[in-house]
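Hi V.,

You were right to ask for the full record rather than a summary. Here it is.
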Amino acid sequence: MFKDMNQSFVSLSQGDFDVKMSVETNGDFNETKDAIENLSNTLTVMLIDINKMVESTVKGDLSNRLETKNYHGSILDIV
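Predicted structure:
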């Protein structure tokens, strides 16, 4: 279980946001597993949104903005 969780963090730290853990967990470990998968999903969505903005900017369209309702915390400083 810890090996899977650690590998998930390594993958995330290396830019691989497609993290799905196959290990069965209970209690606190299940919450940690869910948190890792939620982090993976949030990073994936942020990356997609940022790529859309970059593509628009490259095309000269500066009117696109990220939906701030989708984000919380320090990401709001850059959107």
